[in-house]
Amino acid sequence: MSDLPFTLDQLRILKAIAAEGSFKRAADSLYVSQPAVSLQVQNLERQLDVPLFDRGGRRAQLTEAGHLLLSYGEKILSLCQETCRAIEDLQNLQGGTLIVGASQTTGTYLLPRMIGMFRQKYPDVAVQLHVHSTRRTAWSVVNGQVDLAIIGGEIPGELTDSLEKIPYAEDELALILPANHPFAKLEAIQKEDLYKLQFIALDSQSTIRKVIDQVLTRHDIDTRRLKIEMELNSIEAIKNAVQSCLGAAFVSTSAIAKELQMGIIHFTPINNVVVKRTLWLIFNPNRYKSKAAEAFSREILPQFAAPGWHIDMLKSSHTIAVNGLEVQASNFNDS
After folding, report:
1. Which residue in 270, 95, 262 sits closest to 192, CA to CA?
2. Closest Cα to residue 216, out of 232, 194, 231?
3. Are strands 325-331 and 316-322 parallel, antiparallel or unpaired?
């Protein structure tokens, strides 16, 4: 270890500077002084005999060597965190951490309920929920920053070989209207009635918007004829707009339970048209799975899954390479 030209603290400092863009903000985030950060970087550059930052600009920019060291440094720090969590597991869920990822809709409306149930049973486990885009969430799972995630979009093609992707549940996207809309008095509307509505929608590049367009097209509905009056960037904003009688919208049924119960919006079925998307469970089979992740998968996931889904779908044996040695591991074991 004494022959290594860097320490874990130096790697943490390098990562913080890259993330914050300056030595001062990095020092603040690490609760150390700026001179201490600068000294560590100088020592690191001297030990490696290569500059890591281009100090010519206002923002701390990594050199090519800096980017290379950061790339490997993040993997090293991630593996160190895995090691600590594996040791914590020896306490048999009397501590430890569970980190769950989710895309926007599932992270806002589904995962908090699941985590609440888990926390009631395992109050000593620290739980983190990371809500980001499907792409960023998938990368976090690959890098070991997240144990498992539930997403509604497609994972990037370059990650397909690194992740297990399992169908988890069906998410229905309901057509909602203001409670006083004339169509709200009908048991269902016809497909042609959609052309008479003014719609509030997410951005055209959003996953949910693409799913809606694909399903409607399959049912011979011309999405180009739909009147999109407004595009908003959050489900909550869309729900508030519908409540304010600004238009209709397609929203996940998981997001509107409270509003339907209060009677402030109306869920209007469309004859012979059901808009659904698949929610996917993703995890990295080559990463250590903590006892907390196993317990969450075994005891919580099945309660919210589609009919027929079973924990056995997650069982897999794989080989993890650790410092050149192959270690056989079994994930999500029922034992």
Report:
1. 270
2. 194
3. antiparallel
According to DSSP, the β-strands at 53-54 and 265-267 are: unpaired
Q: What does 199-268 look like in DSSP terms, one character per residue? A: EEE--TTSHHHHHHHHHHHHTT--GGGSEEEEE-S-HHHHHHHHHTTS-BEEEEGGG-HHHHHHTSEEE-
Q: What is the pTM of this model?
A: 0.69
Reduced to 3 states (helix: H, G, I; strand: E, B; else coil), residue 325 is: strand
Token representation of residue 324: 């050149």
Residues contacting residue 86 through CB under 8 Å, at least 6 positions apart: 288, 290
Residue 308, beta-bridge partner list = none
Tell me how far CA of residue 123 lies from CA of 118, 120, 127, in angstroms: 8, 6, 9
Which residues are within 8 A (CB) of 128 and not within 5 positions of it... i.e. 6 or more apart? 97, 98, 99, 100
End-to-end CA distance of the chain: 37
Q: What is the spatial distance between Cα 74 and Cα 166, in angstroms, rounded to a whole number?
A: 27
pLDDT value at residue 330: 33
Give the contacts of 247 (CB within 8 A, at least 6 positions apart).
197, 198, 199, 200, 229, 230, 241
Which element (helix H / strand E) includes 167?
strand 164-178
Contacts of 137 (CB under 8 A, 6+ apart): 101, 102, 103, 130, 146, 149, 151, 282
Q: Which residue has the tokens 């707009």?
A: 241
Q: Which residue has the tokens 């792409």?
A: 135
- Does an H or E element contain 30, and which? helix 23-30
Tokens 């509307």 sit at which residue? 189
pLDDT in tens, 60-100: 889 999 999 999 999 899 888 878 877 776 666 777 789 99
Nearest alpha-carbon partner for 197 in 267, 239, 248, 243: 248
Using the 8-state DSSP alphabet, how is residue 332 labeled?
Answer: S
Dig out the tokens for 82 from the structure: 């895995």
Spatial distance between the Cα atoms of 6 and 73, rounded to a whole number of angstroms = 10
